[in-house]
Design a protein that fits this description.
The protein is of the alpha+beta class. About 20% of the residues lie in helices and about 45% in strands. The chain is built from two helices and seven strands, in the order αβββαββββ. A hairpin with a 6-residue loop joins β2 and β3. The longest helix is centred in the middle third of the chain and has 15 residues.
Length: about 120
């Protein structure tokens, strides 16, 4: 079935970078992204939706924002591919630009992008 690990693997296959499921690990580098699945919809007519948040961080805001835009370019408008055994019909970005959400405890800048994955289940 579909899991956040599948999204991490998709990003690792197509992009350079450090991607973590759910939370940043204590040893993760400054330039990293975490992937969170935060809601879904009921299945209607064999189609379901899952919302995915990707938070990207780095020591300078322009670096974190650039990585968030790189991920956006890679995911937005992707169609008809498999994650494990689940068909992804379409991926749509929910933000037109990465949203700045502040800094973490080590003053690394954080940007968030939200995606809607439409699944054939």
């Amino acid at each position: 079935m579909f899991s956040v690990i599948e999204i991490v693997n998709l990003l690792k296959e197509g992009l350079k970078g450090n991607f973590y499921p759910l939370v940043f690990t204590p040893s993760s580098p400054d330039a990293s992204s975490q992937i969170i699945t935060n809601s879904s919809t009921p299945i209607v007519g064999s189609v379901g939706r899952i919302n995915v948040q990707i938070i990207t961080r780095d020591v300078h805001p322009s670096l974190a924002e650039a990585k968030a835009n790189e991920i956006r370019s890679y995911l937005n408008d992707r169609t008809d591919f498999l994650l494990n055994d689940v068909q992804v019909i379409y991926v749509q970005t929910q933000n037109i630009v990465p949203l700045y959400i502040g800094t973490d405890e080590r003053q690394r800048h954080l940007f968030s992008m939200n995606y809607n994955f439409i699944l054939g289940v």
